[in-house]
Amino acid sequence: MKICTPKQMQEIDRRAIEEKGIPGQTLMENAGRAVFEAILRRFGSVQSKTVAVICGKGNNGGDGFVVARYLKESGAHVEIDLLCRAEEIKGDAAENMMKAGKCRIAIKEIADASQYQIRTDTWLIVDAIFGTGFQGEIKPPYAQIIQKINDSEVPVVAVDCPSGLNGATGALSEPTVRAALTVTFGFPKIGQVLFPGKAVCGILEVADIGFPPGIAEDIKTNLVRRLEAIRLLPKRWPDAHKGDYGRLFVLAGSTGYTGAAVLTAATALRCGTGLVYLGVPESLNPIIEVKSTEVISKPLPDVKKRGHLALRGMGEIRRHIADADAVAIGPGIGTHHETAELIRRLVSEIEKPAVFDADALNIIARTPEILKKHRGPLVISPHPGEFSRLTGKSIAEIAADRFELATEFAGEYNLVLVLKGAPTITALPSGDLHINYSGNDGMATAGSGDVLTGLIGGFLAQGMTAENSAILANYVHGLAGDIAAADIGGRGLIAGDIMAMVPQALVELEGAAEHDIPAGN
């Protein structure tokens, strides 16, 4: 699903109206009807319920007039609270205000915000004040109105965007409407999936209001939700054997970090990989054997039995890679100088699909130009600190411009870059960017990234492209975290909980695919 900025959305609107000949009135009618239909789906019958529709003077207010009309026609008690004088309403919005009046909907001009009150019997509030074009800070009298909306604790449905949210950046004014449901039109907006903006949108629904196919093809930013993930699921066959689902070789672990190695390898099995081999320093192999049952351990030459991979193990590692369909390297591997030299050599040698993460990236960061020597499909999955070391940019610089920096890096090094965060993004060499919509703050826990590496490696081993492996792994990772958080809460969530819920996440996706239900997020 394409995702755009408000400016891009304005251009799409213009092209639809001026170049494709779709009347603005048609788009507004479709938008208002879509909000009404979403209200019925999420909140049930509106018959005899009291709904306050709060409208500004722009097109967002015009959408609100349409919503009010549909509510009235379905038996709701509707009042439109107008935050301007009626004569200020122009164009398509004015026409829809007139239609609302003809339906005998009370339109009340709010001249004094200090006197404004939300009726005690109000069942639902529809926010049609600003929409996606808002920037800056809320000023009086809007600030007082929005504060009263929030204080009322009545559920709010935001038309296109909660008022006060910057649709381009996710920044919030003080105050900003806190919606239970946001129905946005055509395409989601960047600010609705970035924090803190995502937190005020509630459930985000994207409504088709009649934009012609292909109108957003030049937009390279995409949002990955349930339907997109469903379409990427690798195929399974009733007569398959374990070899049909790939062989992954994981190179990971050092003293104190056997957990990272096991999380990565076990998660790869959890996502459907047929066989997973885990290469670890020989002195740590007994620990791995105790921690792992289904993973096949491969003890490798050790640096003086200190739990670090030795350079002399290169030949054996090459043989394991040759037998595998994909490779995952880095979790908990350490940065001992022999291990570092081993990793640097592997970067330019591996022709199999591979994912590099964690300490492998910290080693590569010393000479990042070696990434340009990689031969096969490559995914790297840094967190902001690791990406800072790879790029020489500060974490603050990365946070301020993560989309652009990730896209530039993926293009320059011809690889797939998964930049972990809230949200995690996947940048492709083509310049396309994919924003993941699943996940929660409970996933900010040690080992969560190792689970993600196992998912990426597992999907690579099952024959998926580097691009699709990364995109699907991010969504499944977040969905598993969401399922775990719903079960035990986010505060005490640990990486093992996320890994344990990977099969359930896949079951949910498979069930939705079987019934063609792109439900939820």
Question: Brief overview, please?
Answer:
With 521 residues, the protein is α/β, with parallel strands linked by helices. The protein is 41% helix and 15% strand. It has 19 helices and 17 strands.
What does this structure look like?
The protein is of the alpha/beta class and 521 residues long. It is built from 19 helices and 17 strands. A 10-stranded mixed sheet has the order 8-17-16-15-14-13-12-9-10-11, with helices on both faces. Helix 9 links the parallel strand 10 (275-281) and strand 11. Helix 7 packs across helix 17 (466-488) and helix 16 (448-461) packs across helix 17 (466-488). The longest helix is centred in the last third of the chain and has 23 residues, at 466-488. The protein is elongated. The protein starts with 5 loop residues before the first helix and ends in a 7-residue tail after the last helix. The mean pLDDT is 96.
Write the layout of secondary structure elements.
Layout: H1 6-19, H2 24-43, E1 50-55, H3 59-73, E2 77-82, H4 91-102, E3 106-109, E4 122-128, H5 142-152, E5 156-159, E6 181-185, H6 197-201, E7 203-207, E8 221-224, H7 226-232, E9 247-251, H8 258-270, E10 275-281, H9 285-291, E11 296-300, H10 314-323, E12 326-329, H11 337-349, E13 354-356, H12 359-364, E14 378-380, H13 384-391, H14 395-400, H15 402-413, E15 416-419, E16 425-427, E17 433-436, H16 448-461, H17 466-488, H18 495-500, H19 502-514
Helix pairs in contact: 2-3, 3-4, 7-17, 7-19, 8-16, 16-17, 17-19
